[in-house]
Write a structure and sequence with these properties.
Methyltransferase, Cobalt-precorrin-4 Transmethylase, Domain 2; 3 domains; five-stranded mixed beta sheet; disordered C terminus
Length: about 325
Amino acid sequence: MTRPAPPSKLAQMADDKKTTERGHPRRYAIGATAVDVSPLAAGLYLVATPIGNLRDVTLRALETLAAADVIACEDSRVTRKLTEHYGVATPLTPYHEHNAAEARPKLIARLARGEAVALVSDAGTPLISDPGYKLVRAASEAGHAVMAVPGASAVLTALTTSGLPTDRFFFEGFLPPKPAARQKRITALAAVPATLVLFESGPRLAAALADLAAGLGARDAAIGRELTKLHEEMRRGSLGELARHYAGGGETRGELVIVVAPPADEPASAIDIDAMLRDALNRVSVKDAVGEVASATGRPRREVYQRALALAKDDDDGPPQ
């Protein structure tokens, strides 16, 4: 008669069977405590990861990463630091801007086989400054479920600690690296009625701030460096002051976020309105010019129209038609 295996051996056998059936152990660990999780339902899971401090990961993120069939990541060396720290054994596969066209169909095929795919970026919320949106679109169009597992975001962390208005903001990402293209883009951003949030690299920070100061004027700004990490810093000042600080040797190592105050909410002067009207009237009809200037300045259309009539009289061109 065969004697039954002891309870501890039975538990190990059951665990080994689960691992064989599922492909990898579905568990994560916090310190010495291991937590087993059940496999996820098929779908694409967008998992936010810490932007620096590994303790900023959420319990739901750990559970999702451990329970998924595969983790699609930008750089496996970066993501492995997180998974190894928390004992997650889920296999990693690369998905980044250089291989996305080739890797995307393979991930969609895995979804079609009923697998759960977790998508992460190197840090923070995926799809912010990475090609993930194309995968989300492809998965959605193929009829697969797409779910968010929210968490850390460098954009929101910098915005909320900058001391600048948070009721409306515009995320620009990285400015063009070449000066002419960067200056042209800054000119386009000047009229955005919101706080601006940008990413920048250390070697280009001083030049980018100088161009921002030239294009946006003396706006207040803040530079977030190494947010949530050991050497975290939030430096505040005008764009000009910050440009001079970093041009003079200010520390630029690490991840950087630039936050810039919105344009001053000041009514356009009569001189500004006249100049804008003259420019518009050279391009479009009176009706369109009045609408354009009224929209840009916030002034009543009737007031702007009356000003257009006065300009026409001053120019001896008769009343606008």
